[in-house]
Amino acid sequence: MMPIPWLHDDDLSFPAVETALEDPDGLLAAGGDLTPARLLYAYSLGIFPWYNDDQPILWWSPNPRTVLQPSNLHLAKSFRKFLRKTTFECSINASFGQVMHHCRQSREQLEGSWISDDMEAAYNHLHQLGHAHSVEVWDKGELVGGLYGIAIGKVFFGESMFSYRSNASKLALHTLVQQLSAWDFTLIDCQVATDHLLSLGAQAISRGEFSARLATAVQAPNSHWPSPPINQTDSDIPWPI
Fold first, then answer.
1. DSSP annotation of 230
2. Angle at the Cα of 189 (from 113 to 119), degrees rounded to 5?
3. ω into residue 36 within 30 of 0, thus cis?
4. pLDDT for the residue numbered 237
5. How far is it, in rounded angstroms, from Cα 38 to Cα 168?
6. Closest alpha carbon to 50 in 35, 62, 36
7. Is the bond leading into 64 cis (omega within 30 degrees of zero)?
């Protein structure tokens, strides 16, 4: 693997996303930290952290990029029938910490998780600041599914989801899309393609197209999930970028 740039805590800048490696796809840089300022700046550029406990922080910008336009969500007939009959209840931002922890646990049981203690702490901090959000699915008061991600402007950057009941994660996504559609969000970032995401209406677009759409969408005003300014003691870079 070719060497990649090393980030330093006193400098929030990133290499141009076009310089990311092709193998492994999208690896852009290593190092840095998980402060709110760095994370929000990274997401605004289409960059996200993904690494294992035995690695430094790794930053990625894959090409192509998988996205879902809220208006393109595909609901199978079987799921529409489920929607009419389900007794599950949904909420938004009612239990962010639990949702993220369940995402971590469910992935650890399957193939291992990139959601470390540091990642949990960082994204819970973003939630406290009003940047990170969750959707919860409840069955008789028990949390059985959900998802979480980050909102900037009118883009929602999806991070992870979990499901302990059939259709629970789909219901969480459906709830999210309904809310984002009502608020005129234009894009949901799904990062990389899976058969499941593609079956729901997600599509792969080039990194260049994604960056162009992102540049406009993250600057769009959003009074529902606004992007409050980052404390300037955290960064010399003004927000929005």
1. P
2. 35
3. no
4. 33
5. 32
6. 62
7. yes
